[in-house]
Specification:
- The structure is a single chain.
- The chain has one domain: mRNA Triphosphatase Cet1, Chain A (Alpha-Beta Barrel), CATH 3.20.100.
- The relative contact order is 0.22.
- An eight-stranded antiparallel barrel has the order 1-5-4-3-2-6-7-9, surrounded by five helices.
- It contains six helices and nine strands.
- The protein is 25% helix and 37% strand.
- The radius of gyration is 18 Å and the shape is globular.
- The N and C termini lie far apart (38 Å).
Length: 243
């Protein structure tokens, strides 16, 4: 079996587009000549976002204060367990450039590190640890606060492999039962017919991509799944039946 090389640091321009599935189908037909499926094209992604009880980190991000940081634990396991491989990730943004730092660990180790400060041998990346410590100084009492899960289809440039396009669908969130081992249930983040297409490039868009986006009059949108989930959770009645 081919061993996937794990990248731990990212710097790229990331733009999101909220699309109807019919529009996505037309875009995919036009981009077909320039994109190929990623090595691991189809995946199930589940995330836990860490914040304090007042959700100060995501409120600062929504208000564009600081580096709009997010601290999350991500797994690609279809049915996560306490021993599943996870990534502890810090995301930051400066203007349109996104930065991501991450390490590979397991669910139990990450939660123990964030909540109790206990770092085992898997919590060894110094850049990640420094970023986490800075966040803990600003936001006391970080703990698991939101689960967001979705299906992802990933593509990359047939010539320039650093060009990536991802499509996220069936996005669900919950601010209760915040444990990756509890499954993918929750509230829908978007309407059933909507998806999120994200384009990730090291610099400017390739000419072919700009031409296709301009043809359909598409403009990128400032959109955060965690930010949207937080705002939607405030609108929900706490005792409403869970989906």
């Amino acid at each position: 079996m081919k061993q996937k090389q794990i990248q731990t640091n990212f710097q790229r321009v990331e733009t999101k587009y909220i699309l109807e599935r019919a529009t996505l189908a037309r875009l995919e037909a036009e981009m077909h000549a320039y994109l190929i499926p990623d090595d691991y094209a189809t995946s199930t992604i589940s995330n836990v976002y860490f914040d304090n009880d007042d959700f100060q980190m995501i409120q600062d991000s929504i208000a564009r204060r600081g580096g709009r940081e997010k601290l999350r634990m991500r797994t690609y396991a279809a049915e996560p367990t306490k021993d599943s491989q996870v990534f502890l990730e810090i995301k930051k943004k400066s203007e349109d450039v996104g930065f991501k730092y991450r390490l590979v660990s397991n669910l139990t180790s990450v939660v123990n590190y964030i909540e109790k400060g206990l770092a085992d041998q898997t919590i060894s990346d110094e850049r990640v640890k420094t970023e986490v410590e800075l966040l803990q100084e600003r936001y006391a009492g970080l703990k698991p606060k939101m689960v967001i899960s979705y299906d992802r289809y990933s593509m990359k440039g047939s010539e320039d492999k650093k060009v990536r396009v991802t499509v996220d669908s069936n996005i669900r969130f919950r601010d209760y039962d915040v444990d990756l081992t509890s499954g993918r249930h929750g509230y829908p983040l978007l309407e059933d017919d909507m998806v999120i297409m994200e384009i990730k490039v090291p610099g400017e868009y390739p000419e072919w991509m700009s031409a296709i986006l301009n043809k359909y009059g598409l403009e990128d949108q400032s959109f955060s799944k965690y930010g949207k989930a937080y705002l939607k959770s405030k609108e929900l009645i706490p005792q409403a039946a869970k989906v």
